[in-house]
Amino acid sequence: MWRFATEKAPNLAKFKLIVSDANGTSQTLEVEGPRAQPLLGHRIGEVVDGTIAGLPGKKLRITGGSDRDGFPMRSDVHGGVRRSIILSDGTGFNAKRTGERRRKRVRGNVITDDITQINLKVWQ
């Protein structure tokens, strides 16, 4: 088989995981390859197994994340795409004045290959 310059090698997922617990402490882990594959396709709010982050016997809840360009994930934007939406509060927007609204770019609530950071909370 010939490999052309336009063909891409399979992209293995690589994520930076920020795992927080009830005490307010957090730890940062990096997972890639086969350990990161089970996270693909999950949404914000879902509970995953802790063995992905090296915490066997624990459950982890996905609370958010950001993509490779720094755009935050929002739970109310469906899919794994980047969209421009009008925001008045919440993740991805800090209002300077009362009642201010702006169109901002945010990422959807599904974990894809474009996501680089995933925020998790220990969930029992």
Question: How would you describe this protein?
Answer:
The chain has no helices and seven strands. The radius of gyration is 17 Å and the shape is globular. Helices cover 0% and strands 38% of the residues. The chain has a domain at 14-78 and 109-123: Ubiquitin-like (UB roll) (Roll).
- Our estimate of the beta-strand percent is 35-45%
Number of strands: 7
Could you tell me the CATH topology label of the domain at 14-78 and 109-123.
Ubiquitin-like (UB roll)
CATH class category of the domain at 14-78 and 109-123: Alpha Beta
Instruction: Report the helical percentage.
Output: under 10%
- Structural class from helices and strands? mainly beta
Distance between the termini: 49 Å
Q: How many helical elements?
A: 0
N-to-C order of helices and strands: EEEEEEE
Regions with pLDDT < 50 over 5+ consecutive residues?
Answer: none
What does this entry show, briefly?
This protein has 124 residues and is mainly beta. It has strands at 14-20, 26-32, 47-49, 59-67, 82-87, 102-107, 115-123. Strand 1 and strand 2 form a beta hairpin.
Sum up the structure in keywords.
124 residues, mainly beta, Ubiquitin-like (UB roll), five-stranded mixed sheet, two-stranded antiparallel sheet
What secondary-structure arrangement, pairings included, does this model have?
Blueprint: E1 14-20, E2 26-32, E3 47-49, E4 59-67, E5 82-87, E6 102-107, E7 115-123
Parallel strand pairs: 1-7
Antiparallel strand pairs: 1-2, 3-4, 4-7, 5-6
